[in-house]
Write a structure and sequence with these properties.
Layout (H helix, E strand, L loop, with lengths): L5 H14 L4 H19 L6 E5 L3 H15 L4 E6 L7 H13 L3 E4 L13 E5 L11 H12 L3 E5 L22 E5 L17 E5 L5 H6 L4 E3 L2 H7 L14 E5 L6 H13 L4 E6 L4 H7 L4 E4 L22 E4 L7 H10 L8 E2 L1 H9 L12 E2 L3 H7 L6 H15 L2 E4 L5 E3 L5 E3 L12 H14 L4 H23 L6 H7 L4
Parallel strand pairs: 1-2, 1-4, 2-3, 4-5, 5-6, 6-7, 8-17, 9-10, 9-12, 10-11, 12-13, 13-14, 14-15
Antiparallel strand pairs: 15-16, 16-17
The structure holds ligand NAX, adenosine-5'-diphosphate and potassium ion.
Adenosine-5'-diphosphate binds next to helix 14 and helix 15.
Length: 500
């Protein structure tokens, strides 16, 4: 699913109006009806509801929503925040329609006009939408602050008032902090950026049948992975396949005290369909791997506690493997760096690079040019900062991410809520699955195993990253549904992986 910028969103509305065709007012009615259908599914008709409307089309939505909820007998109070002398045409039209069914529309010009908000009420925020062009100030700012202070449940229409759709806010901007954002048709970039979490809440999309052809041809680097899109990436297995069909992966993982990382990556690699797996670990990990992952072959490093790349059989020969995954639990010993140095030039196919392998790269940036093209790098934000440089805000981080992927022709999975997968062509796919239960040690190692398995099976790197990250998050969601997110372990995630 595409994520469009604010100008494209406006053009999409206009394209819908022109091509469907539909009158702007009827499109607003459709959007408001969609919102109301969502609202009645979530809040009973006894819910005391206060709707705050601005003077633009977001406010117009708010007035239409007020009328539609009143028709359904919700106890609704309407407040218009009068911050400017002029209203939009569709606001005025909906204002007239609302006045036909109630005289009781209140106006907020000064702070003293603000109502008291209680915990058992719902506030609908329709003050400012995608037309935001400057920080909220004056009475708009006072209203937003009052809503944020209140114990009421807050639902924003389209986007929280004060939040920009696709550009950074300043640190002191005043922005609604909603429990829910109910938006239209497509996600907005602001919704998937971690620092905006409290300005978005849970977000929901309402299909208002905007012009499909416009969406199909609109250029954008930003995508949001939908379940059907992820499922389409899945390779079907040939009935006459054998284990050779699904590749032979080599995992280089573990060091003394962190052999668990190798175990997790190995298990998830097997659970993700690899044909054959060899795990190369320091000597201290040999028996552990053999006993805990019997399906994998194990190769013992020449060193007792860290990876050096040497072994009794001459060390790992990456050329003989379909794919190499490196990083979980390896530490940053000088011998391990030397191994990485030797290894990179010998690998010709895309590999997976994670954790301390990334940290070693960031401390030895001359190695960047040795990373095999189309490899998948899986940094969390701190690792990504080490690979690049600090950023001021999520938008700057996104630019760094796209630049890095393009410059080094790699796929970068920047992990976190809505993990961002940047491709060598500069596109970014935001993941839609996962939950805070995954914020626990070892889940990143599991992801490395998953991605290594997919590359071994012949998935293209971008497809492997999009599908693997989606499936990993979905496994977390399945567990959270069954027993809640707290206490989830990385091993649980491996068990919950499903490829169907
Ligand atoms: N165009 C359409 O066909 C549709 C639009 N919809 C709604 O329309 C909204 C966009 O409407 P608008 O473009 O009128 O935008 P807004 O409703 O966000 O209002 C923009 C107006 O507020 C002013 N403004 C911007 N920042 C301000 C600030 N900080 N303080 C005070 N005033 C400020 C602008 O100068 C402009 O006059 C969407 O968010 C959505 O809710 C929906 O009804 C769906 C259909
Ligand atoms: N709040 C969250 N929502 C969704 N996914 C999350 C969240 N927190 C962490 N994750 C996922 O969990 C994994 C954590 O990986 P990482 O930080 O490398 O942990 P570790 O190094 O302990 O294995 C990543 O895939 C990340 O996207
Ligand atoms: K709003």
């Amino acid at each position: 699913m595409k994520i469009l910028n604010v100008d494209q969103i406006r053009a999409l509305d206009e394209s819908t109006i022109k091509h469907e065709p539909i009158a702007p007012l009827n499109l607003m009615e459709r959007a408001s009806m969609g919102f109301v259908n969502w609202f009645v599914d979530h809040f009973p008709a006894t819910t005391s509801t206060k709707i705050f409307c601005g003077l633009g089309n977001n406010g117009g939505d708010g007035l239409a929503i007020a009328r539609l909820l009143m028709e359904r007998d919700y106890p609704v109070e309407v407040y218009v925040v009068r911050y400017a002398p002029r209203e939009s045409d569709d606001f005025m039209h909906n204002h007239r329609r609302l006045k036909l069914i109630t005289e009781d529309v209140k106006y907020i010009e000064y702070s003293r006009d603000l109502p008291t908000l209680r915990h058992n009420e719902v506030v609908i925020d329709a003050i400012l939408g995608s037309g935001l062009s400057r920080p909220a100030d004056g009475i708009v700012k006072a209203t937003i602050e009052a809503i944020n202070r209140a114990p009421a449940t807050v639902v924003s229409v389209d986007i929280a008032s004060g939040l920009y759709v696709d550009q950074p806010n300043q640190a002191n901007d005043v922005i609604i902090e909603p429990d829910h954002t109910v938006s239209f048709q497509l996600p907005k970039l602001a919704f998937v950026l971690p620092k905006n979490g409290k300005y978005v809440g849970k977000w929901h999309l309402i299909d208002i049948q905007l012009h499909k052809r416009y969406i199909d041809i609109a250029p954008t680097p930003y995508y949001y992975t939908q379940p059907n899109e992820a499922r389409l990436l899945l390779h079907q297995r040939d009935r006459y396949s054998n284990k050779g069909t699904f590749g032979h992966a080599l995992l280089l993982a573990g060091s003394f005290g962190k052999i668990g990382a190798a175990v997790l990556a190995a298990r998830s690699c097997l659970r993700s369909g690899v044909g054959l797996l060899t795990v190369h670990v320091p000597q201290c990990g040999y028996s552990i791997i053999q006993a805990s992952v019997p399906e994998a072959m194990c190769e013992s490093d020449g060193h007792q506690t860290v990876l050096t790349g040497t072994s009794r059989v001459g060390g790992p020969q990456p050329v003989t493997y379909t794919t190499v995954g490196i990083g979980p639990g390896i530490g940053k010993a000088p011998e391990t760096l030397a191994m990485l140095r030797d290894l990179l030039p010998t690998i010709t196919r895309p590999m997976v690079i994670d954790a301390d392998a990334l940290n070693l790269l960031s401390e030895n940036r001359e190695l960047y040019s040795q990373i095999p093209q189309n490899s998948i790098l899986t940094p969390h934000p701190k690792e990504f900062e080490r690979l690049t440089k600090p950023w001021q805000n999520d938008y700057e981080k996104l630019d760094l991410l796209r630049d890095f992927a393009k410059t080094h022709r790699v796929v970068v999975v920047l992990k976190g809520a809505h993990s961002a997968i940047a491709t060598p062509t500069g596109d970014v796919h935001f993941n839609s699955t996962g939950n805070p239960g995954l914020s626990t040690g070892g889940t990143g190692d599991v992801l490395t195993g998953v991605l290594t398995a997919l590359l071994a099976q012949g998935y293209d790197s971008v497809e492997a990253a999009v599908l693997g990250v989606y499936a990993h998050g979905l496994a977390g969601d399945v567990i959270a549904d069954q027993r809640g997110p707290i206490g989830m372990t990385a091993s649980d995630v491996i068990d919950a992986l499903r490829w169907e």
